[in-house]
Structure prediction request, 559 residues.
Amino acid sequence: MPPLSPRDQAQASWVRGDAAAAIGVALQHATDEWMLRAACAMALRSHRVDLLMVHIDDISALERGVERDGVLASVLVGEGRVDEAASVVLAISPDEVAATDDRPIASAASLRSAAIAYVALGAIASGAWVVAARCLAAVRAALDAEPADATDEIGRFDILGMAAMIEAHTGTENEAVVALESALAPLRSRNLLSSEHALALIALGDVHHLHGSLERAAVNLSRGARLTAASRPGFISHARVLLAFIRIRQGRWADAAVEVERLGEPNDTIERDWIRTQILAVRGLLRVVTGDLDAGAADLREARVLAETTPSNLAAMVLLHARIVEAVTRGDWDGLQHALDDSEEPGYRHPYRDGEWRVLTLVAAWNRRSFADFRRRLTDWALTSDAVDDPYYWACASLAAEFEERHSDALAAAERALTVLGPAQDPMGQVWVRMVVGRYFVRYGDEGSPDPDRAREVWDHVIAQLRGLGALALAERCEGIVERMIARFERDRGAHPLASLTPQQVRIARAVAQGYTSDEIAAIEFLSKRTIDYHVTNIVVRLGLSSRREIARVIDAAD
Prediction:
């Protein structure tokens, strides 16, 4: 049997699904224009334009055509030059494409659609929504003209996913999102989701995140990342970075660290600068929230520099959150206000729910001592239907009433904040609400008199939650506040043996003294064993004891 010709070798590798080998064979014979165009076609269809970079000058020297222009546009996307990339691919005339024949590997119409779709995705990634919408419209028109051939390359679910992301970031309608969810639902219920649906799942996760449905977003992103082919590193990176960001917002920092570790470093893909920007941003944010401020700041600085040349919508969201966290952590209230102002520029959609955004603006105003602005914003919030069940609103209302020495109103607002506080708020948001309320009980409590028992109870919850999150430095700062508070209260109230314990801790201490185990006390108090053990350790420390066994002696003396 005679040996296969280079063309047949490339074709055979392509049919076997080994795109890298097929492109490699074609590039070995790049002096043959047909083979060079074949390499371009295969790279466009397999998303491996990175394999062509050593021959980019040869490709640039080709006559204009869909293979050449598609590759050059893809390279422009990788460099962050999305507008130029769109101009290149949209200039490929459908009439010219329809007149060509003898195309390597795929029809010119199919390649044109694939190239435009790739630029649309680049525009979505960079937040260039007008360009993205133009490219998506062009892809849809191409699919209408060449449905049988083009749909194999692009896919209905890719189109639905891109449309949903563009709609979510630019408008108030949800028609595209509903269409996407409706298309995915029967496949999800029958466990028929595959790599064909990966982009759609990631897009749906992105939309859910933007709308504040964090756990639904995480489910879709995780599944989309698992289903995405390794040849689509940009998709995988977007899903993993956004999933890590969501876990940070949820206070699940260990889970976020797992996602960041999975990201690793970008390979030789032409999207590497986009991917690296996103990775640096989320890694820097994770380091900041877990207390490694210097290393986190270094990552964030590098991410911001890269974002100037390869702007990433996702990286911008993460970097905004990082600016807010850094400003709050350092007490830089002017910096917080600047971050909030920047994010309200036209064309940018931040991912915060209305209550989250309002409380950030109020925190900035309060700490900048812009009390008139604080009152105005709080009054506007009070007129909304959501305020009545928002703990952030009530915490701010407590601050305002305390400032005006309306202590009964401040107390009622503080109590209401604790009552409506729940899982809808992210863990650090819950901590902030309790810190505001705990501060009020320390200073004024009921009718202007300090309430040490309530204050200790609230602050202990804050400390336990911070330790559970891994925010040890902040937990230690809060423990210092509690220790100073206890010392002051003990001076005021005398040296009763149990004066330093909260009512809940007194109950737990008496149960320990009576011989109950931590598991049994947990059942009695409707708490976890871990929480009971934390309280017992705290009791031992506050009573100046050396072990759990000594609690019974102190209880006997107190009684």
